[in-house]
Amino acid sequence: MPLHTQASPPDWSSDITLAPGVDLWVFAYGSLMWNPGFPFIERHVATLNGYHRRFCVASHRYRGTPETPGLVLGLDHGGSCRGIVFRIAAAEVPAALDYLWDREMTNRVYRPLIRRLRRRDGKAVEACCFVVDRQHYQYCGGLDEASVIQRIARCCGQRGPNVEYLANTVSHLDALGIPDAALRRIYAGVRRTTD
Length: 195
Hints:
The chain is an alpha+beta fold. 26% of the residues lie in helices and 33% in strands. The protein is built from 4 helices and 7 strands; from the N terminus they run βββαββαββαα. The strands form 2 sheets. A 5-stranded mixed beta barrel has the order 1-3-2-4-5. A two-stranded antiparallel sheet has the order 6-7.
């Protein structure tokens, strides 16, 4: 008689609980804005309060190496962050979450939290937000701006130079009409360093 084994639960099921058959909103503040990698049925500019966009995560693979870690963005405590909120249709949610956990949660430097955001049109939505874990060994929120500039200017990983990641973020924020003075200052500093 064949043995029937029960499929193991998806990786994300231990981090977030979702009602079956319900669409999911996901908040993007960095590379997910221009490269979400999952199908979505709508997107809006939205603001998350209580967290801000910051270069505070050491990248040992995508934008740097273990020997010369680059920097990528995380949602860190305090302030607010404007980005894009995507709505994923209920039927696509499990596959989208599988993809996101493989992309964002490999080293578990982020904590996926469901938080309330305000869309630009005034409507509130609950969305999955990837917030940096300040206790994680990749967290480097103590770097000053000059150190951030130097690291971004010199690092490169599997997905290319760290400065490309910064440039893409700045250009997409500009296209969306989302000002981010801190990122613009860092970008100007990197360009001065590399020109």
